[in-house]
Fold:
Amino acid sequence: MKHCADRPDLWYRLQAFGLPEVLLILTACIGVILLAIPFLTTQKKQHTQIHSVENLRQWGIALNLALPDVSNQLPWKGDPWEQARKAPLFNYAWYILLRPYISQPALDEIPENHQPRVGEKSIWVNPAVAKRDLPRGASRVFFYAMNAYLSTDKELLRISRVHNPSATVFMAETASESASLRPENVISLFGNTRNPRKDPEGMAHFLFCDGRVAAVTRRTFAAKDENGNYIAETRLDSRFTFLPYEGAKPF
Structure:
């Protein structure tokens, strides 16, 4: 039987690697890490997108469940929080009316130190939003908001008046103090661009009045006409619009 001392020890075997071999191994390890970073980043982006889409789908389910209970009237669009609390339609605001159908507390029942915030796992929070996206000095932020054209300050709109539910926006991603949505406060957070918040190809998720959720580019939802008006706010469109019917006004 050979004595274990006859075998090359670990140190001897390590000495067999010269500087070129060590550098080659280090280079390979660094290469693997660099290749993994984009993959992990992509995976994280896809996860946040899926989570946000699921949040919107849940709000769509809540809408469909609520409509028969309120004579098929769409919820009130809401407003900046302090202003909305004084409005006669406050109890019909989407964030008050819809929440029981998905077992959520009303926002005004949640203590201030437990309000929805960045990084929290919640149907109220878009996981793609970062602190840099929040309005400065905001006391309360909505991560999703309802189309401002679907109600007025004094009237709720019946779903039957929406000409094309599959193309009419009900809700979309935002990071704003206002619970009502117009093209200027939609936030586009993903796409194949470095700055999707400004790039025409940057995309945001939209929930439509028929319950469909889809990604829409800034080129579509923020398009303006020759007079500088948002097209989705001034013209009915068969594929995408904020207007439920001809001549609709949000205020």
User: Anything to note?
Assistant: The chain has a mean pLDDT of 85. Residues 54 and 123 are 8 Å apart (CA to CA).
